Amino acid sequence: MKQIILFFFLVSLAISAAAQGYKVGDKASDFKLLNVDGTMVSMADFNEAKGFIVMFTCNHCPYSVAYEDRKIELHNKFVDLGYPVIAINPNDTVVQPQDSFSKMQERAKAKGFPYPYLIDAEQTVFKEYGATRTPHVFLLNKENNDLVVRYIGAIDNNHEDASKATEKYVESAIEALMNGKKIETEFTKAIGCTIKVKKS
Amino acid sequence: MKYFNTIIIFIFLQTTPFLLISQSFRDVPTIDFKTFEPWLKKQNDTTYVINFWATWCAPCVKELPDFEKINKKYESQKFKMLLVSLDFLRDKEKRLIPFLEKNQLRAEVTLLHAPNANVWIDIVDKSWSGAIPATLIYKNNRKVFHEGGYTFDELDQIISKLITN
C-alpha cells in the first residue's frame, strides 16, 4: 500500500513539475524570431502598439486551421487600435514536417496572413510563456515599460463554428483593456494539439 | 402465394449477409458533456481507462495500438476502456468511422461533442490544459491523469497496480 501511495505521489509530482510558464499578471519577455518574410521580429519593433495578441499556432493542427480566419479578423479588427496579432509556430519541424519553415511560408502566402508568422526554432519562447497546445493565446498589454500578461487561453468558446461562439474571450479582454475595465474572463482552457517537442 | 413465400425467403437470404455486415460497422454514439460526465467518477471495483484523442492528432493515433493491446490484455478482468474522440462532428462519418474500421479498434469509442471546452476541461482534471492525447486512469477514488502520450509499459504498470489493489 505504501508503495502505491508513493507511486501516485511521484506521478502527481511529475505532472505538477511540467506545469510552468506565465500566469495572468506576470511580465512577459520579448523575443527575436524569424518571420516568414525572412526578417527577425521582436515586439520592441512595434513602437505604436499598446499590446500584442501573441498566438502559439501552427499549420497542421485542425484546431489552428479552424481558427485561421478568426485570427485574421482579430488582427484586422485590433491592429489599428494598437493590438496586433503575432503568430508563433512552436513545433519541432522534424517531429511535424507540415510545420516546417517553408510550409509556414506557403500557408502565410496562401491565406495572406496580415500578421507576422514566426518560428520558435529553439523552442525556448513557448516554454517560457507556458504554451501547451495550439492554438494558445497570450494577450499582452504595455504597462509602463513592461508587457503584462492580461489573458491566457482560447480565442472564443466554439472552435467548430465561429457563428455559434457565444463568448469571444480575446475580443472582450482587449475591449476591457481599452475601456479601462476589469477583464471578466482572464483565463480559459481549450482542446488543442500538443506542442511537438524536439526529440533528444 | 407459394411464389410469394419463396420470394420472401429469397429476399431474406439475399439480405442476410448485408445485415450481418451492417452490424459489424462501428456504432459510435455522439454525446454531450452531461452524458459523458458519469464516466469520470464511477464508484465500483472496475479500473477505468478514459483516453481523449482524435484522428487528426498524430501522437494520439500513434499510441492507440498500445491502448488496444492493453484492452485485450485486461478485458477479462474488472476493466473498462473508453476512447473519447474529440474529432469535429462533421468528420464523424468521413474520418472517424473509416479510421476505426481500418484500424480494427475493439475498445469502445464515443464522440464527445462539447465545443465549449473551457467549462468541462477542469471537471475532467484540474491539471489538464486541454492538449491531447490525455488519459485518465482510475479505480474508485484513486486516479492518475496524464496530459501527453503513454507507452504500453507505462499503461500496464499503472493499470496492474490499480487492478490488483
Report on the structure:
The complex is a heterodimer of chains A (200) and B (165). Chain A has six helices and nine strands; from the N terminus they run αβββααβαβαβββαβ. With 200 residues, chain A is of the alpha+beta class. Chain A has one domain: Glutaredoxin (3-Layer(aba) Sandwich). In chain A, the strands form two sheets. Chain A has a seven-stranded mixed sheet, covered by helices on one side. A two-stranded antiparallel ribbon of chain A has the order 6-9. Chain A is globular. Mean pLDDT of chain A is 92; it is low at 13-18. Chain B has 165 residues and is an alpha/beta fold. Chain B has one domain (27-164): Glutaredoxin. Helix content of chain B is 44%, strand content 21%. Chain B has helices spanning 2-24, 33-36, 58-74, 92-103, 121-124, 152-164, and strands spanning 30-31, 47-53, 79-85, 108-112, 131-132, 134-139, 142-147. The longest helix of chain B is centred in the N-terminal third of the chain and has 23 residues, at 2-24. The radius of gyration of chain B is 19 Å and the shape is globular. Mean pLDDT of chain B is 89; it is low at 16-24. β9 (192-194) of chain A pairs parallel with β5 of chain B.
